[in-house]
Amino acid sequence: GQSLEQPSEVTAVEGAIVQINCTYQTSGFYGLSWYQQHDGGAPTFLSYNALDGLEETGRFSSFLSRSDSYGYLLLQELQMKDSASYFCAVRGGNAGNMLTFGGGTRLMVKP
Amino acid sequence: KAGVTQTPRYLIKTRGQQVTLSCSPISGHRSVSWYQQTPGQGLQFLFEYFSETQRNKGNFPGRFSGRQFSNSRSEMNVSTLELGDSALYLCASSFSLQGASGANVLTFGAGSRLTVL
Q1: Among the listed residues B62, B84, B66, the one whose alpha carbon sits nearest the alpha carbon of residue B15
Q2: Residue B71: pLDDT above 90?
Q3: pLDDT band per the 50, 70, 90 thresholds, residue B100
Q4: How far is CA B72 from the centre of its chain?
Q5: Distance between CA A89 and CA A99 in Å, rounded?
Q6: What angle do CA B48, B110, B105 make, to 5 degrees?
Q7: Which residues of chain A have pLDDT under 50?
Q8: What are phi and psi of A82, to 5 degrees?
Q9: Residue in chain A nearest B47 by alpha carbon
Q10: Which residue of chain B has the CA closest to A94?
Q11: CA distance B50 to chain A (A)
């Protein structure tokens, strides 16, 4: 099976940088994704890493280390609108390869 | 183009009843997945449909079922509702099966919030 661990809550101030970590266990691995979900909203895709290294998309970056079964989402120049829950998700090698999501990290950005 | 549409958005049922939720995927998307989201369990995979066939199923009892129509629209049904079925049910569509190569980005609908009394 697959399991993912991420912190339940992170607090940061506007303009700061925050890193949300995700460690995973999976019988196979095809990639790590990140999704953002605002309260009352739908999860939206942020990024995907299939290979080791850093992927940058504007203020957001995502990193993957397959040897460490670890990844993180880096949010720079935090804005109040970044307050949301962030989910890592892994596609593994079990039957179907469906996405398995972590429990989510609630990010609170304070002024 | 229009996003993923889920209906109804909110509904209240009582224990023992059954419920049907509907999902219209993005035009051209052939894969529809369903997830249950609760504060305690997070996002849990229910099932995935592709070309009218159930391709994958999560660890849920047989009371949870679904189907997909030829136009890729999908429905899920929960019979004999229990209090623990209260949750946000999310539908997501993608162009290909989740097991396909690449990022396989899921586009989620806003969800159907089910309350069981």
Answers
A1: B84
A2: yes
A3: low
A4: 13
A5: 6
A6: 50
A7: 95
A8: -80, -10
A9: A98
A10: B99
A11: 12
Residue with tokens 């109804």: B8
Question: Which pair of tokens denotes residue B72?
Answer: 């890729």
- Tokens 């539908």 correspond to B91
Q: Three-state SS for A81?
A: helix
Strands ordered across the beta sheet of B5-7: B5-7, B19-24, B74-78, B64-68
Sequence letter at residue A31: G
Task: List Cβ<8 Å contacts ≥24 apart for B96-99.
Answer: B96/B30, B96/B31, B97/B31, B97/B48, B97/B50, B97/B55, B98/A91, B98/A96, B98/A97, B98/A98, B98/A99, B98/B31, B98/B33, B98/B48, B98/B56, B99/A91, B99/A96, B99/A97, B99/A98, B99/B55, B99/B56
pLDDT at position B99 over 70 = no
Interface test with B, best of A3, A55, A97, A101 (most B CBs within 10 A): A97
